[in-house]
Amino acid sequence: MEQRIRLLLSRDDWYHQRGYWVLASAFRDAGIEVVLGGIQTPEEIVQTAIQEDVDIIGYRIMDAAPKILMPILFDKMKQKDILDIPVVVGGIIPQTEEAFIREIGVKAVFRPYSPLEMIVEKIKTIVTEAKAQI
Q1: Total-model pTM
Q2: Does residue 35 sit within a domain?
Q3: N or C: which end of the chain has fewer CB within 10 A?
Q4: Contacts of 80 by beta carbon, 8 Å cutoff, 6+ apart
């Protein structure tokens, strides 16, 4: 029996919402429980992740700078001792910033038009690997 996955899906802006909703539907169709965080700051993401006891955080970034946001998110996660929750990022992620955000802990980066099935399978793999390390 496959273990239930709880994913927090957050985003950084009011615009470009279609992908956020398409992903939420794809995850739910795949049996992943989605907690819709909506527009959240890194601190709000951490609070929601704790309150909702999620297995993974998905952060959709379109307008903000991942190189600025991700260190803040991981610092807030460290303060609350939840660095064991994997983080994935999607959206407009400059190639020049991907290596940096992966080095600090981002498990996967998904760009526009990434196949939904691939994203879903990658999320399942990341959560399975994270739970095996506990």
Answers
A1: 0.94
A2: yes
A3: N
A4: 46, 50
